Amino acid sequence: MTSPTLIEHIRQTEGHHPGATGELSRILARLSLAGRMIAQRLLNAGFLGEHGDTGQINVQGEVVQKLDELADSIFVRVFESHPGVCGIGSEERSKIHAYDDEESKSGRYMILYDPLDGSGNIDINGSLGTIFSVHQRDDIRGAVAEGDFLQPGNAQIAAGYILYGPATVFVYTAGGEGSVYGFTLDRSIGEFFLTHPDIRMPETGGSYSVNESNEPKWNDDVKELVASYRQGRAPVGERVARYTGALVADFHRTLLKGGIFMYPGLSDRPRGKLRYLYEAAPLSMVAERAGGASTDGKIRTLDLQPTELHERCPLFIGSRGDVEYATSSLE
């Protein structure tokens, strides 16, 4: 029997979402469209001269890659004709993008995303990804404002990511108590098919993933935590070291194989590098729905209340036992 496509699966599970109206299903379908469009452009980027940077610096203080800009523009176009979406927030943009047509102004849904995670891997043909989150606003009167986007992760109604590697994989969770599902793109026909039903994060085994070049900037507790993994002293068991420089790739491995991904605060960046709304919160929703956990070292990631659109937070995410060990080590 052929596995269901992503669109078929979304329609089949639509009734499982509290208060389902069909709008969320259409949004997830548009997200998959954006993923397919980005995947295709990544395949042809070298031929089209789309590698390299634009010479500009984004709101994060990072050099903008041509494909960063392209991926962001794809999201804007994909949702500009969707009346249920009133606005989007992108890691690449300093402000929200509100859709100004009359139907969209009264839309209830907001999309937050990192259009191309790991863009430092572009020129070396490394793994890349997209991270997305869907929120609702309570008051649909008038145009959407930045404050509507400043919601804790526990208010997300859907979240997930797209991994662009040897295969393109779409992973998402939605609804009040939804499972985590993974789909793989069949490039020959342009369809995502269900390949990972009800993903559960392993409780044992796996890897630890952290940028160890930052060690001089860690506090003593973090240094000891990472050293316990490196030296095989961690009470959760042995973990091998794996780090790709692309959050989506490292998280996907952790989701399927177990272990922990860490991006702690640094002496020059006490809140770390990762953005809460575009990276930490969406992946934390996926992790928890798969049986894992996530924290900033003290507080459950999904309970953090952002006050800025591009707020950062430390992130310790993975198998529940590993995250509990990390939290106890940092108290």
Explain what you see:
The chain has helices at residues 6-13, 23-48, 66-80, 102-105, 146-149, 220-230, 247-257, 276-289, 320-329, and strands spanning 53-57, 63-65, 85-90, 97-98, 109-117, 128-136, 158-164, 168-174, 181-186, 191-196, 207-209, 240-241, 259-263, 293-295, 315-318. It has 331 residues and is α+β, with helices and mostly antiparallel strands. The protein folds into two domains: 6-196, Fructose-1,6-Bisphosphatase, subunit A, domain 1 (Fructose-1,6-Bisphosphatase, Chain A, domain 1, 2-Layer Sandwich); 207-329, 3-Layer(aba) Sandwich (D-Maltodextrin-Binding Protein, domain 2). The strands form three sheets. It has an eight-stranded mixed beta sheet, sandwiched between helices. A five-stranded mixed beta sheet has the order 12-11-13-15-14, with helices on both faces. A hairpin with a 4-residue loop joins β9 and β10 (191-196). α2 (23-48) packs antiparallel against α3. The radius of gyration is 19 Å and the shape is globular. The termini are far apart.
Shape: globular
**Count of discrete domains:** 2
Please trace the helix and strand order, writing H or E for each element. Answer: HHEEHEEHEEHEEEEEHEHEHEEH
| Average pLDDT level | 92
Helix and strand arrangement:
Layout: H1 6-13, H2 23-48, E1 53-57, E2 63-65, H3 66-80, E3 85-90, E4 97-98, H4 102-105, E5 109-117, E6 128-136, H5 146-149, E7 158-164, E8 168-174, E9 181-186, E10 191-196, E11 207-209, H6 220-230, E12 240-241, H7 247-257, E13 259-263, H8 276-289, E14 293-295, E15 315-318, H9 320-329
Parallel strand pairs: 3-5, 11-12, 11-13
Antiparallel strand pairs: 1-2, 3-4, 5-6, 6-7, 7-8, 8-9, 9-10, 13-15, 14-15
Helix pairs in contact: 1-2, 2-3
